[in-house]
Amino acid sequence: MLGIHQRLAELYMLSCQRALTSEEETEQRHCLQANAMYCWEMARLNNEARLAADTDDAQWQQEISAQMYEVRVTGRAGRRRK
Hints:
Blueprint: H1 3-17, H2 22-54, H3 58-74
């Protein structure tokens, strides 16, 4: 879980108790944007992993697994295979 996910949960819990401040609403939008990018990147990598498995490309699968780990830990993928 990334820090943005924790903060998004905190903001959600606060919004259940009271109206969020303007700064909190801005922070919530930023967290939602970062979460959307995270989800799209993981979806892309999952699709590539399926392609690598379907083509029996073990090296590509390893590269994708490393990228998926990096996204889970940092929120961003490093180098991409061309």
